[in-house]
Amino acid sequence: MTEPSAARANMGFIGAIVAVATIGGFLFGYDSGAVNGTQPGLTAAFHLDDNGLGFTVGSLLIGCFVGAFFAGTLADSFGRRNVMRIAALLFLAGALVQGMTHDHTIFVIARICGGMAVGAASVLSPAYISEVAPADIRGRMTTVQQVMIITGLTAAFLANYFLAKVAAHPGDPNDVPSLNAIWFGIQTWRWMYLLQALPAVVFLIALFFIPESPRYLVGKGRHEQASGVLASLFGHAAAAAKLEEIRGSFAVDHRPRLRDVLTPAGGRGFLGMRAIVWVGIMLAVFQQLVGINVIFYYGSTLWQLAGFKESDALLINIVSGAVSIAACFVTILVIDKIGRKPLLLIGSAGMAVTLFVMVYAFSHGSLDPAGKLVLSKDLGMLAVVAANLYVIFFNVSWGPVMWVMLGEMFPNQIRGSALAVAGFAQWFANYLVAQSFPRMAKWSLAGSYTFYGVCAVISFFLVQKFIRETKGKELEEMQG
């Protein structure tokens, strides 16, 4: 049969669908960036020590791995679009409560709810896009998820910068802008949370204007609706044939469920789970073990080690965000031409080299009387340049490509369930890396980055051995 392609697809409609689906990624990026400016306010409002602050900020990630785990199976039961609507509502409620509450327990619960929304959207957006986009541009379309994550991060830095400027008291040497009250007598750090409600509202409303995934509709036996969606995506000529192909990829007497990730009778697997699910877990976990979120969450520490003032950190983060977005656009241009596996290999090699350059810089630093690492100007600049190159390699490869592959590599029958397991693994690894870094850094900053560098080297060989190229293949061709 002739497969639907970008040339015959309704690209305006598909582009609108992608724009809506990836707002969930924007929300995650926005929260990650916004929270960096709220820490003085959180400490003062809830009387937190360092451990309490770390848990309060990191509680979002607890919600993320819970949301990611349940999203896949819920999406198989209630639909991709409906679960994303629930996620939008959770994020909206979480943003409003975090900005208004004066009770720490309620704040943490709201933050966990927001995390559940982020975790759900993170796995459903790439899966949904993969299920509506033509195979020959599917990688490009799914890569937009990573672009939106970084765009959200950068937008939050800009919003925080603007709010801090509005709230600042020039000439006061003890001024902390995030603690100052601005509009309606509400403190600036609270506005940093409240502003997250705006993209959440946009996400919720926009989700009422896009269709349900045709693969989900076929899985539920709603063939007439699926045919209508396929016709709007690819035209009536291709819709009927595509519908039959999708129907053939589902077992007639079986509906998707979580236990589908287990090895079927007579099949090959490890510890009772399908091999393809383990490959997904490997991709999800190593995306975090290479240490990317250490750069995102603790980047200002690195800039200060390099000799920059704390006041410069926000502007440097904005520049880093812009560089990251540019790197993702490179991926959009090449991912459907050279494939997923070559990009992952290039990324692993590049990250390994740049991480070990940072190790070199950190290992040749000195300690001040307080035991804090001090770098010379040359070593500091070497570390900053290496860190930015590392971010470029990540955002050209593992950043977007991991989400692309998780959205497309699993067979239709197990996609929701496999995403639940892989998504849980990704966010749990994210949480462990973020929580462990402060302790690891106190022990040895060079040792910490050595661990991430070794993981990057290991990831190269794992990709080489276990990853099968999915470029240009229809979802119905996926095996596992």
What does this structure look like?
With 480 residues, the chain is mainly alpha-helical. It has a single domain (11-216, 267-477), classed as Growth Hormone, Chain: A, CATH 1.20.1250. It has 20 helices and four strands. It has a two-stranded antiparallel ribbon. The chain has a two-stranded antiparallel ribbon with strand order 3-4. A hairpin with a 5-residue loop joins strand 3 and strand 4. Helix 5 runs antiparallel to helix 9, helix 15 packs parallel to helix 17 and helix 16 packs antiparallel against helix 20. The longest helix is centred in the N-terminal third of the chain and has 30 residues, at 138-167. The chain is globular, with a radius of gyration of 23 Å. The two termini are 23 Å apart.
